[in-house]
Amino acid sequence: MPAPRSVALAFGPDAAALDLAGPMDVFSAATALLGEGAGYRLLLVSPQDGPVRLSNGSRMLPDLRCADANDRYDVVLAAGGPTPAHDPALSGWLRRACPRARVHGSICTGAFALGHAGLLDGHTVTTHWEFADELAARFPAARVEPDRIHVRSGALITSAGVTAGIDLALALVAEDHGAELALRIAQKLVVVAQRQGGQSQFSPYLSAPQDPGTPIARVQAHVMEHAGDDYSVARLAAIAGMSARSFARHFTQAAGITPREFIERARVDAARRLLEGSRQPLKAIAYDCGFGNADNMRRVFQRRLRVSPADYRARFNRDA
C-alpha cells in the first residue's frame, strides 16, 4: 500500500483563509476516499509560533514553525493573502524546502513569496489577475500569464486567486490518483468540476468602471451584449456620445485597457460560454462572437488561453 503524500502548506500573517482551507479540504476529501494509508498528510507551516491571525480575522494554528520544518515534503505550497506580502523567514524556508519537494507552488499572491525566494525565474507562472502586472514587474525573469486558472512549469505549479487553489489541488490529486477521483472530490465539495489550467480566470466584467452610468460603461455593456457585431472607433464613440478623437484615450484611462483589447476579451468570454454550454458548431460560434471564422477564433484562443476552442469544449462542456 502506498504511503500518504506529505503536503506542507506555508502561510504568514494576513493569509487568506480560503487559500488554506480550499486545498486542505481537497486533500482531506481525497484521504477520506482513499484511506489514511494512501491519501495525504497535511502540515501547516508558518514563520511564527502560536496562532496566526488570517485576513478575515480568524486564527490558524500551524503545526510547525519554519525553523522546525526540516523534513522533505512531497508537496510544498505557499498560500497568499489579499495583497502581496514579503516575509523573509517564509521565503527563506521556501528557498530551502521547495527544491527538495516533488512538487512546489503557490496559491494566489503566494507567488510573491516564491519570487522572493528566487523560485520563479525562468518559469511560466500565474497569480490573482489583480496583481499579475506587479508580479511581472517585481520578477522579470518569470513569464506571468494573467489569464490562467493554474499553470504547471516543471515541478512548479502556481494558481490564480483564492478559490483557484481548489483547482490546483484537484489537479495534483488527478495527477496522483486519476481524474475520476478528482471529479468525485469536486462533486463532494459542490464545486465546478476541475477547471483546467487553460481555462480563463478573466471576464470582461472585471474591468468595468465602478459607475455603470458612465459613457465608457455604456460602451462596455453594449459590446458584451453584442460581441458579434463589427466595431470601429467611430461606432464606439457614437455609443458613448463622445467624439472619436477623444474616445480611445478616455476608454483606456477608465478601463485600463484599449477598446480593441476589451472587444477581444468580450468575444473570447462569449465564445467560452457557448463552448461550455452548447453544441453549436465551432464555425457558428466564431461567427456569432465576432471572430469571422473558426481559424481566427482558434488563433485568438491559442494566444490568450493556450488551448484550442475544440479542446476547450472537450474539457469544459459536460455534454461534449
Would you mind describing this structure in some detail?
By secondary structure, the protein is an alpha/beta fold. The chain folds into 2 domains: 5-189, Class I glutamine amidotransferase (GATase) domain (Rossmann fold, 3-Layer(aba) Sandwich), CATH 3.40.50; 204-316, Arc Repressor Mutant, subunit A, CATH 1.10.10. The protein has helices at 17-34, 88-97, 110-116, 132-138, 164-177, 179-189, 215-225, 233-240, 244-255, 259-277, 282-288, 294-305, 309-316; strands at residues 5-10, 40-46, 52-53, 59-60, 64-65, 75-78, 103-106, 124-125, 143-144, 150-153, 156-159. Helix 2 crosses helix 3.
Termini Cα gap: 36 Å
In oligomeric terms, what are we looking at? single chain
CA radius of gyration: 21 Å
Mean pLDDT: 89
* CATH-level-4 superfamily name of the largest domain: Class I glutamine amidotransferase (GATase) domain
CATH class of the largest domain equals Alpha Beta
